[in-house]
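Example record

Each entry pairs one chain with its bound ligand, 1,3-dihydroxyacetonephosphate.
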Amino acid sequence: MWRGLGRPESPKIAAVLIAGNWKMFKGAHEARSFTTRIRNLPVRTPGVDVVVCPAFAALQGALEGLGSDSAVRVYAQSVHWEIEGAYTGEVSAPMLLELGASGAIVGHSERRQLFGETDDTVRRRAECALEAGLAVIACVGETETEREAGKTEGVLARQVSFVPAHEHLVLAYEPVWAIGTGKTAGPDVAQETHAYIRSLHPAPILYGGSVKPENAAALLAQPDVDGALVGGASLDPASFEAVCLVAAEIVAA
Ligand code: 13P
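Structure tokens for the complex follow.
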């Protein structure tokens, strides 16, 4: 169990991190009503750091719904590796900080597979974000073909070697074959893979890939699973709340 995100102003507590990755779902209006509903959720989930990751266009809406005193934090789904410049379509860390976002995901497999993200651009995005003061969730994970070919450890070792170590960085292990497929790495596979990643990098490690209220307890109970990056099940407030409540039970156990 890790010891929280260690925001400078707050004492570190034993914690798990539950982050909802909304991908390209929810515009500003829907984001605002979702976060209005969950703004007090952390009061019911002690020891759980609750994060939502809306699309850039919905960040402001999500932050408005939370108001000024919610412990729920808002992360972007990516961030550029320069502070500013001629980079059409990109968003920089200072822009996110100015809005009130606290962090960003980098290296999600959808960005790696569909948008040309490389290990090196993941590293550059992470380094720039951390230096600017954002927290980072850096994603790693093998494809089904790589797992079947026995290449999982090699792929993870390469991806993780590009991720900087920093007190505000967490890793997310997201096996590509488990994303949006309904297939999860079983708790044993998740534990074994997290333990391997743990041997390579000091950061807390979230599991991602078809996490739902029904399977969250078994995954989060594994000693090297420090939280979850939730896709589909984070889109519905009731199921996102349910995952966070399960996490709180694990912390309290
Ligand atoms: P699902 O939970 O929908 O499988 O998505 C996982 C994911 O990609 C989170 O980043």
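The chain has one domain: 16-252.
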